[in-house]
Give the backbone structure.
Amino acid sequence: MTERLILLGVGTCQLEPGRATSAVLLELDDLRLVYDFGRGTADRLASLDLRQDDVESIVLSHYHPDHVSDLVPYLHAASHSRTDPRSRDLHIYGPPGLDDVVGRLLGLFGPGSLVVEERFTVHLEVVESGTLAIGPHRFEYRHLPPAGNHGLKLARGGRSYALTGDSDFHREEIDFLSGVDLAIFDSGHLSEDQIVELAVASRAKRMICSHIYEPLDEVALNARASARGYTGEIRIGHDLMELGLSG
């Protein structure tokens, strides 16, 4: 398996043609993980020809609808699809409140409507800020204010990768992204001045704007950051953007 990150969507709660809400697929040699699962995520996975059993783990940053709502169609298909029913257990990780949130989603249409327990089991695993272990892999799972959001960070092959979910501009975010090789970050809750400041202060080598509310000028952002001594790169993310985990 090619080790890569794919931006499944870079959108927000806004309804925009051709854009799903922000979610990231992480593919390692022995793990496929989806970080956040809002509107459009299930369709994006299908567009990549990924079957139900190809995805083993889902990590939720927090519980806003645009980060969890596509669990409903995804699990419904997992149980009742005639062409791709799920046969492997699914692990969902999230901050405190996970049992309540996912439990209410699973019970929304009545008992057993979304998950046929005889076929597979959904394992809910609550994670506090700190280390998240998935198989042999260790991730940093850190609380980032103000919405109960949690960022996810991975070290791989001497390089580091960070995903912020939702996050305002604050010292915790600067620290979380400090020196990383690749950051996929929420740009929608930041002003352009704050995006530039985040790049300059964190010194992240590549920064990919996601969770985008309004159009951003990539050339202008890089020029302003460079003028302040930033030597990395800021890019505007787009749905299905692919990023390798090396080089």
Notes: The CA atoms of residues 169 and 194 lie 7 Å apart. The mean pLDDT is 94. The chain has seven helices and 14 strands.
